[in-house]
Fold these 2 entries.
Entry 1:
Amino acid sequence: MSTRSRIGILRKNGSIDSIFCHFDGYLDGVGEKLISYYNDLSSANKLINRGDIETLHEYADSDSFKIKKYGDGKITHSFFDDDATNWDNYKPIHSKNIDELLKKDIENFVQYIYLFNEQKDKWIWSNVNFDGEFRDLEKTFEITEKLEVKKDV
């Protein structure tokens, strides 16, 4: 079973550019990697421009993304197999706003949404199945660490 997520950038005008991630979408998977390796706008843009992914890794251009080149020179990922596919199937999607994005993700059974807020220069996240509210990703990890320290004492 996979924990699906959507990773995107919330632009200053309220629109969103995003990609689908099939595996490890939970906070300790995708969430932790976003904070650790993609915690600025440049890195987030590089990731989104790669298109849909199976699993998020440390580098947006690593071999584990199975990047392939095909006919017209565009770069895409092999998503569920190693065959080069039509870029249109995997390119980032553009949504006018969060409501439009949420409608698309309900259809894909996405459980978590991670957005790099361009205006605030930070990641926010939401568990779509829980309450749909967006929270500061870094603060979520800070709170979790404090709770774990209290348990150890």
Entry 2:
Amino acid sequence: MGRGDLSKDEWARLKPHLPMNGRQGGRWTSHRRVVNGILYRARTGLPWRDPPARFGYDLTQHRPTQVTRELIDWADLVLAMDHAVLNRLRDIAGPDTVTEMRLYLDHDRDVPDPMGRPAAEFAACALLIEAGAALHLH
């Protein structure tokens, strides 16, 4: 346990409020690890692209990619975080695309954008994204 990580008692109080992983495929990492990473980021001010690997996310090699019609045609499935992005992707793809495109979350829900919001909203968003991963990992 690192400095500033949740204690056993804190984790015991928080855990019942987190989403369960009810689908086959599992989560990318444990909820506790993600929450500790979010708390570390909030405490240190470290940019989101530079979290320590001990929190399960190594984004140092991540680079944004411009979405093109060719990239969409190459993909079997394109997941969008919200309706606005999904609509824009459909515009790029055109009416004759055969690529499946849908929202990341089930039940037609958007993933909220936590930028500029308190750390608690970042934590909730990260957990929502992790829970959604189980929908796509088989």
